[in-house]
C-alpha cells in the first residue's frame, strides 16, 4: 500500500511535468519573523549529494528555515553517518541532527537515505530510504523535511505539497502550479481572458477554476495530468467561486441564473445542479468544511457582506462574523476550528482569523490590499494574495502571525492562490 501511494504521488508530479510544460518565471521568497520556541536542528551535507541534480541538504535547510519553527545549524560534512558523537552536537546547541547519503543507482535513479538523530537522548528518531528518479530529487528532499517537521513538532509537514495561482502579464493570464516553495513551476492553462478562483480537488489531481475565454465567467474542472477539461457550470449570467466537497464528488458554486447570485451544488461532471441558498441578497464565495457538514459563504442579507454557515443541503444559515461591517472570502481550517477571511477596516482589506469556539479574532497581515486566503493542508499557515508597490504578489503567514513570507515574480502580477492537499 505504501508503495502504491508513493507511485501515485510521483505519477501526479510526472503528469504535471510532462503535460503542462515549464512556466517562464520562478518565484523569490523573502522571510521575516520567527516562530516561538524555535527548535535547534543541525543539518549536515548529505554524503555524495553532488551526484544528484538537486542538493538535498540545501532544500531541506530552506524548507525548515521558511517554516519559522526551526533554528537551522549548518553541520558541514559528516563523513561517517554511522558514528555520531551525540554529546558534541548537543554541546553545539542542536537538539536534533539530520544526516544522509545519496548514491546513484545503475538504473539512473538515486538512492537517498536520511536519518534524524536525537542529540539529547542519543538515539535515532526517524529514517527514510527513497529510490528517486532524477526529476523527483527535489520532491524527495521536501518529503524528508516533512518527516523532520512531523517528528519534531508533532504536526505533518506541508513542504511536499503544491500550490496553484494565476499570473497576469498584460493581457496574458496563466494558471500555474508549483511546489509549496515556489519552485518547479508548471503551466496548466494560458488564456488572453481572465482566469480566477482556482480550487484544488481533494486528491490533488484536478483544479476547478473560472475562465472568461467565452467572454463570460464559466466554471471548469481540469485534470492536471491529462489536461482534459469539463464544463461544470455554464448557466445564464455569472458562474463563479467553485469549491470542492471533501470527497471530491461535488462542487459548490455561485450562480446568478435566477437573478441574485446564490449558492448551488453540482456534481463534479456538471450534472445534478441544485440551489441550496435562498435569500433576497447576494450569496457567494462558498467553501466546504473539511468534515463535509457545513458550507461557509459570504452574504449581504444583513446589509454589508458577512460570513454565514449552512448545511450543504440548504436550510437556515447562521451568521459567523460580527467584528467589522465588511467580511468576505471565508476559508475554514482543516480542523474546522479557525475561520480565515478578508475584513475591510479603516479602508484596508486585511487577513483575519476567527477562533470559532471563543469568538476571538486576530489580524494576521500588515498589508492593506489582501485577498483570496488559503490554508496549508496542515492548518499551520495561510497563503493569500496582496499588493505592494502596485504589484500583486503572494504572501504566507503562520496562523499565530509570527512568521511571514512574501513570494514575488520578476514580471507580472501573481494572485488567486490556492494551497493543494496532502498527496497520499
UniProtKB/TrEMBL annotation:
Xref: InterPro entries = 6-blade_b-propeller_TolB-like, Tol-Pal_TolB, TolB_N, WD40
Protein function: Part of the Tol-Pal system, which plays a role in outer membrane invagination during cell division and is important for maintaining outer membrane integrity.
TolB N-terminal domain span: 27-124
Signal peptide per UniProt = 1-25
Asked if the Swiss-Prot or TrEMBL record annotates the protein with the keyword Lyase, the reply is no
Name the domain of life: Bacteria
**Taxonomic path:** Bacteria, Pseudomonadati, Pseudomonadota, Betaproteobacteria, Burkholderiales
Q: Which family does it belong to?
A: Belongs to the TolB family.
Q: What is this protein called?
A: Tol-Pal system protein TolB
Q: Which UniProt keywords apply?
A: Cell cycle, Cell division, Periplasm, Signal
Gene Ontology CC, one term: periplasmic space
Localization: Periplasm
What's the subunit arrangement here? The Tol-Pal system is composed of five core proteins: the inner membrane proteins TolA, TolQ and TolR, the periplasmic protein TolB and the outer membrane protein Pal. They form a network linking the inner and outer membranes and the peptidoglycan layer.
Any one GO biological process:
protein import
Q: Does the keyword Signal apply?
A: yes
Amino acid at each position: 500500500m505504501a508503495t502504491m501511494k508513493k507511485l501515485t504521488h510521483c505519477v501526479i508530479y510526472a503528469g504535471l511535468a510532462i503535460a503542462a510544460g515549464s512556466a517562464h518565471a520562478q518565484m523569490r521568497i523573502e522571510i521575516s519573523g520567527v516562530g516561538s520556541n524555535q527548535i535547534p536542528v543541525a543539518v549536515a551535507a548529505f554524503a555524495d549529494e553532488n551526484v544528484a541534480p538537486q542538493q538535498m541538504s540545501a532544500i531541506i535547510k530552506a524548507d525548515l528555515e521558511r517554516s519559522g519553527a526551526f533554528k537551522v545549524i549548518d553541520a558541514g560534512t559528516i563523513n561517517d553517518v554511522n558514528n555520531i558523537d551525540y554529546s558534541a552536537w548537543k554541546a553545539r546547541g542542536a537538539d536534533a541532527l539530520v544526516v544522509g547519503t545519496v548514491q546513484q543507482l545503475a538504473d539512473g535513479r538515486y538512492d537517498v537515505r536520511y536519518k534524524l538523530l536525537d542529540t539529547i537522548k542519543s538515539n535515532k528518531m526517524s529514517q527514510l530510504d527513497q529510490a528517486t528518479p532524477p526529476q523527483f530529487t527535489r520532491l524527495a528532499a521536501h518529503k524528508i523535511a516533512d518527516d523532520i517537521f512531523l517528528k519534531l513538532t508533532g504536526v505533518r509537514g506541508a513542504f511536499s505539497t503544491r500550490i496553484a495561482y494565476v499570473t497576469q502579464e498584460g493581457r496574458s493570464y496563466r494558471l500555474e502550479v508549483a511546489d509549496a516553495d515556489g519552485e518547479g513551476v508548471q503551466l496548466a492553462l494560458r488564456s488572453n481572458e481572465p482566469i480566477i478562483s482556482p480550487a484544488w480537488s481533494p486528491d490533488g489531481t484536478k483544479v476547478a477554476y473560472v475562465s472568461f475565454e467565452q467572454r463570460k465567467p464559466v466554471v471548469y474542472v481540469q485534470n492536471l495530468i491529462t489536461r482534459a477539461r469539463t464544463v461544470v457550470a455554464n448557466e445564464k449570467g455569472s458562474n463563479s467561486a467553485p469549491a470542492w466537497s471533501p470527497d471530491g464528488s461535488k462542487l459548490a458554486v455561485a450562480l446568478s441564473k435566477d437573478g441574485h447570485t446564490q449558492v448551488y451544488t453540482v456534481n463534479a461532471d456538471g450534472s445534478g445542479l441544485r440551489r441550496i441558498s435562498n435569500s433576497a441578497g447576494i450569496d457567494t464565495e462558498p467553501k466546504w468544511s473539511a468534515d463535509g457538514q457545513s458550507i461557509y459563504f459570504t452574504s449581504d442579507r444583513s446589509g454589508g457582506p458577512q460570513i454565514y454557515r449552512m448545511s450543504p443541503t440548504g436550510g437556515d444559515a447562521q451568521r459567523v462574523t460580527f467584528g467589522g461591517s465588511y467580511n468576505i472570502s471565508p476559508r475554514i481550517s482543516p480542523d474546522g476550528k479557525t475561520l480565515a477571511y478578508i475584513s475591510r477596516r479603516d479602508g484596508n482589506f486585511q487577513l483575519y482569523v476567527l477562533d470559532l469556539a471563543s469568538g476571538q479574532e486576530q489580524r494576521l497581515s500588515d498589508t492593506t490590499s489582501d485577498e483570496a486566503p488559503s490554508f496549508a493542508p496542515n492548518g499551520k499557515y495561510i497563503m493569500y494574495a496582496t499588493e505592494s508597490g502596485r504589484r500583486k504578489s503572494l504572501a504566507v503567514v503562520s496562523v499565530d502571525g509570527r512568521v511571514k513570507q512574501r513570494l514575488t515574480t520578476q514580471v507580472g502580477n501573481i494572485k488567486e492562490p490556492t494551497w493543494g492537499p496532502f498527496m497520499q
